[in-house]
Design a protein that fits this description.
There is one protein chain. This protein is 52% helix and 0% strand. It is mainly α and 89 residues long. The longest helix has 16 residues. It is globular and about 30 Å long. The C terminus is likely disordered.
């Protein structure tokens, strides 16, 4: 289960990163005190390395998203299973 969740989080991070390079994100995280490299970003996005909760708040700030909880939601490109269309009247 953990590996599947790490892959889902990684895909969400990749989507939220947008045009920002892995290197730029890693640099911003280093400026916040984390020992991140481009390889760290690559590993997180692949799901090979879990995103630690303590890192997630800073990463949310770097990526300009609301909070760390945004990483556990479905990837932005995937339709949400919670969204249902209401029948029209």
């Amino acid at each position: 289960m953990a590996a599947e969740q790490d892959k889902r989080i990684g895909q969400t991070v990749l989507t939220l990163r947008g045009d920002m390079t892995q290197q730029a994100v890693a640099l911003a995280m280093r400026e916040r005190g984390w020992k991140w490299s481009q390889a760290t970003m690559w590993s997180i996005e692949k799901g090979d390395r879990p995103l630690r909760l303590a890192e997630a708040d800073d990463l949310a700030g770097v990526l300009g998203v609301g909070s760390a909880s945004d990483f556990t939601s479905a990837p932005m490109s995937a339709p949400s299973s919670r969204t249902r269309k209401l029948p029209s009247s």
